[in-house]
């Protein structure tokens, strides 16, 4: 499969996914984006390769980036942000600062949690509704995150985001307590 075919299929899947999550009909999205209903149907069926201008209009109407619309990956997405990739937005000579640890696009309610897991303990979760996203920042120890049966190691100072519509578990396989900050974004009710 060519790169163009991958992009066309990714765009089809992602436009339909985000349109559904936002609760837009084809007509509503067409009106918001200034794109014909027929063009949206062709895009969602992977029968056309629209201009970048059209993709930008659709992304703006959905409230997501072009990168999100063209994302190749399928299945639960997991992105680990190591400490050296954290963005420091501002700082003062006295030592004040703000850091954007991790971010993701998701509608609906947002929860923030503080977790502590002692060595050899874990907590598992059934899949959440489609569109639920979790963001965790490990402040001490090492997190063993399991998403859909795949283990990810997230060390202190690193952050991770993932789509939580798959089974997942937070675990501590280390010798010291593991602490993390956790934000959960749940899709808005239709």
Quick summary of this structure?
The protein is of the alpha+beta class. It contains five helices and eleven strands, in the order αααααβββββββββββ.
Task: Explain the overall architecture.
With 190 residues, the protein is an alpha+beta fold. Helix content is 27%, strand content 33%. The chain is built from 5 helices and 11 strands, in the order αααααβββββββββββ. It has helices at residues 3-22, 26-33, 37-44, 52-62, 66-69, and strands at 78-81, 87-91, 97-100, 110-117, 122-125, 133-140, 142-147, 150-155, 159-163, 168-171, 178-185. The strands form 3 sheets. It has a 5-stranded antiparallel beta sheet, with no helix packed on it. A hairpin with a 5-residue loop joins β2 and β3.
Keywords:
four-stranded antiparallel sheet, elongated, alpha+beta, five-stranded antiparallel sheet, 27% helix, 5 helices, 190 residues
Biggest sheet: strands, sense, closure?
A: 5 strands, antiparallel
Report helical residue fraction.
Answer: 25-40%
Give the distance, in angstroms, between the N- and C-terminal Cα atoms. 36 Å
DSSP E strands, number: 11
Which strand order spans the largest sheet, edge to edge or round the barrel?
Answer: 1-9-6-11-4
Number of helices, counting only DSSP H or I runs of 4 residues or more: 5
Mean pLDDT: 85
Overall geometric form: elongated
Q: What radius of gyration results from the CA coordinates?
A: 19 Å
Overall SS class = alpha+beta
């Amino acid at each position: 499969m060519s790169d163009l075919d991958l992009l066309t299929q990714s765009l089809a899947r992602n436009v339909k996914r985000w349109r559904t999550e936002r609760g837009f009909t084809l007509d509503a999205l067409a009106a918001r984006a200034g794109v014909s209903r027929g063009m949206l149907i062709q895009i969602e069926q992977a029968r056309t390769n629209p201009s970048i201008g059209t993709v930008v209009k659709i992304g703006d109407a959905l409230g997501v980036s072009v990168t999100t619309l063209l994302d190749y990956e399928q299945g639960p997405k997991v992105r680990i942000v190591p400490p050296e990739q954290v963005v420091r937005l501002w700082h003062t000579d006295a030592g004040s600062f703000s850091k954007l640890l991790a971010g993701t696009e998701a509608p609906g309610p947002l929860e923030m949690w503080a977790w502590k897991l002692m060595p050899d303990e874990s907590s598992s979760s059934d899949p959440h509704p489609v569109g639920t996203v979790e963001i965790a920042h490990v402040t001490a120890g090492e997190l063993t995150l399991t998403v859909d049966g795949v283990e990810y190691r997230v060390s202190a100072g690193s952050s991770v985001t993932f789509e939580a519509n798959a089974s997942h578990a937070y675990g501590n396989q280390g010798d010291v307590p593991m602490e993390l900050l956790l934000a959960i974004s749940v899709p808005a009710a239709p």
